[in-house]
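hiii, so i know i said id send this last week but things got crazy w the move. better late than never?? heres the sequnce for the chain we talked about at the cafe, plus the structure i predicted for it. fair warning i was half asleep when i ran it
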Amino acid sequence: MAGDESDVVRLGPSEFLAKCALYPRYLRDGIFASEALLDLGKDGRGSKPPFVISCASRTLLPQVQQVHEFGCRRATKANERKAERLGRNLERPGETCHYRGFYDLLVGQVTGIPSNAYKIEVVLLPEDGEEAHCNIVLRPEEATKTQLRTERTDILIQISARLRGPTLHISPSDLDLVYFLSPLALPVFSDEPGPL
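okay and structure toks below
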């Protein structure tokens, strides 16, 4: 991540995150896959860049409706970028992504995952005008590439096991696709409630 380290805002262990589920990004071969939901991406280049998982701060979005609005805006922005990249309008629903809901995740459960290969933290990182956007960051420590790959997989499995929800939603702009989107159920990971 660019910028002065002193400017980085780390979320505390008692704070919650929302991990938005965008269809079809959470699918692998047409089936829900938690690793696809978590969508681990590299933050930079080089042989050992940090990896990030995009989320939203529930401290800044305490109401369920606020998270839904955030997720809808993220899907809209992704579709706008794709249309711009392709230079044409996208076919719905085949080429577009759609917000379907979110999962809650407690920061302390993520940062408390033991790892010898990564330092795990959650940082606020506003993006696209979204002040609540944050990243789960996996910063590589001194480890071999094999150790990094193995622990990265283990960390994703452990994060998946800590998801709570989902809280489902269909965007008002997707009401014409309700019969298409509704059967695409998101699995329930935990019945424990998230923040009130």
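btw The chain has one domain: 9-171. thought thatd interest u
miss u guys!!
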